[in-house]
Amino acid sequence: MKFRLLYLALITSILNFSCNTQTIPLYVGTYTDGDSEGIYKLDFNTKTGELGKLELALKINNPSFISYTPNKKNIYAVGEGELSAINALKVNTDGSLTLLNTVTSNGKGPCHVSVNEKGNKAVVSNYGGGNVSVYNLNNDGRLNEAFQVFDHNTENQKARAHSAQFHKDDLFVSDLGRNAMYQYKLKNENYQLKSETIVEMLGNPGPRHFALTKDGQNIYIINEYAGSITSVKRTADGFKKIDEDSTLDASYTGNNSCADIHLSKDERFLYGSNRGENSIAVFERNKETGTINKIQNISVHGDWPRNFTLDPSGEFLLVANQKSNNISVFSIDSKNGTLSFIYDVKVPTPVCLLF
User: According to its UniProt record, which protein family does this protein belong to (predicted)?
Assistant: First the structure.
């Protein structure tokens, strides 16, 4: 009987331990012109919000943006350096990364990469080149050379492609230089331009990144120069702008450059980062109309929040503060979406976070 009680106690202890130590890897893209050597990994506890020891996952040049395949067996990293490359990486069982192959991004300053839902295509945005390149992915994760390259430069306007995302048969591209959101449609295995801009972007707002709802009915564009979010809704005839909201606190009067934007898991809340005000702006989203209403501006406890992410549980938000070399961790209130700062950890030049 005594042995049985000890056995049950041991099993209970093991089960409690496993429930309280649900860790997943967080990969960190960086700039390597300082102390950083490449892509780093930290284990993240989804129950407590704790980050583990910082480890170098792969030594590689300027992996300033990184993206998973849907099965998380591969990561694609831009090489924002002299080579202007896109790198295919294998995720090893121990969390380290192995370089599979490297191909050209076909333009200067690759700054963003994303993968489609099927995991067989990737798109890279070249900020310096003003173009985007689309790639087929092999079953082993390796990259083929780009099968399409879209150049958005004109004689009178310099393009600054800053991000691109797939949604089913759509490919959307945000162009900060030409103040446009391009829409391409997949037809006969190739993408064809459907619209040079899905909505008119007045003035010089500088559309940078954007977030799409799962059904593709709403797009939220964060504008680097204007310090605003443009809310867009799909209609029978295309798209229309339904809202325009400032990301800044009413009392802030300094310079600012918006950067990243994400929806919460349940799509009830929207988050955007301000570089300058150094804050995360929190918005409540009306799921019926698609409009948003700002409810919080909170300090990132660092400098220059270039990128941020929500963990898979939806209970934490983590911010990569480029200039202050730290990652800040926030808890998310599940009822009202607001953030509370927990703590931060030192990481060299973090600019992209990937769960």
Answer: Belongs to the cycloisomerase 2 family.
